[in-house]
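Good morning N.,

You mentioned wanting to compare the apo and holo forms, so I went ahead and generated the holo version with adenosine-5'-triphosphate. This is what I fed in:
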Amino acid sequence: MRLSRYFLPLLKETPSDATVASHRYMLRAGMIKQNSAGIYTWLPLGHKVLKKIEQIVREEQNKAGAIEMLMPTIQSAELWKETGRFDAYGPEMLRITDRHDREMLYGPTNEDMITDVFRSFVRSYKDLPKMLYHIQWKFRDERRPRFGVMRGREFLMKDTYSFDLTKEDAVKSYNKMFAAYLNTFARLGIKAVPMKADTGPIGGDLSHEFVILAESGESEVFCHRDLVEMDPPGDVDFEGDLSHIFKERTSLYAATEEMHDAEEFAKIPEDKQLSARGIEVGHIFYFGDKYSAPMKATVMDSDGKPQTAMMGSYGIGVSRLVGGIIEASHDENGIIWPKSVTPFGAGVMNLKPGHDESDAVSEDIYNKLVAAGVDPLLDDEKGSIGVKFSRMDLIGLPFQIAVGPRGLKDGSVEVKDRATGEKQNMTPDEAVDLVMKAYA
Ligand code: ATP
Ligand code: MG
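and this is what came out, ligand included:
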């Protein structure tokens, strides 16, 4: 993409209501525009990151055996009345009346609807286990929308639902999602720690939140330090026994504020005690027959007897993650994107558009990176060099290649690694090579 043809509406001033880094940088870097409280337009740069995160989440769900589908955002109140949640949910639920005076709502979550899908089609234990998911916009009329996309009212969530014949099998599904989440967050370049969590209005008795540690986090969390640096499970056999992955992580102390047990925490060696602020990026629940019982979602077991399906649900805040990743990865000059989710693979800066050699070399690097599938951004705009560098720092692409007459005198360009700040001079071909190798 050429900057001169792109749509990158940067802000010079930091909006005063943006109190956390990710919110400030997302506004300044032209990633989002607020439409009303907690509701945002995703501008091209933000949209690209959102879609990349969504795709990684999708790939890891598919690997774990979950099957993608799509349910609507607008739901009928009927199903919610069957489970008793229409009254229980409270003012966070946006209730809508259609022209025929039918009660509708903008879905804050989908347990009720997926249970209806399940009971409509699934009859036999032979069809189990099943894990179904969608990636769809949700609406929750949050009391205090804030921190930009991290606590929005309209937000994008990946939500998976598991159906099993027995609790024992349901725990296996839970473990699959547990492992898939660890791999997902590692691919996104963040360290998310699974912590014992409260189940809230979703209900149930087994639940973990996946939390990234950041000063701007809304809640206080407590855990054993070693959990933060643990490697993801990587290649796992999702058909096999995954309980060791679950046990390994949950044998060390980790809890959110609501579930915190100061006595247990004190048993951790002092130098390993970590209490910090956290951002919840995922949440998994096992809740058995909470929805399947009132909605009569049953299957025939091997003796031909009806059995209520045992369920779990598993959410990831896809849009919250855009902010969460920035909270975990930025400096005073701007965003530092992990390679897996960066909106463009590299930035090529033509420091002097109109200068023949500077034009030719920057175009050549740009074309080679395009051909290599790196998806570069070429800054071909006229303007001061200082503006070019600070703009690149702000939008945070992992590599910046600066091409200008001064370096070209001895045949070199300057490559900066955004994460380390390290700068190196090299030939244009070496620069292309370095970036290509980084994405290979
Ligand atoms: P929170 O405690 O932060 O309000 P929650 O526990 O109500 O979240 P869940 O029902 O567990 O949220 O939803 C699954 C995921 O959706 C969360 O882990 C979070 O990443 C994301 N999410 C929830 N609420 C919001 C929101 N208002 N804005 C953006 N993402 C959200
Ligand atoms: Mg939650």
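DSSP finds 13 helices and 23 strands in the chain.

Happy to go through it together on a call whenever suits you.

Best,
F.
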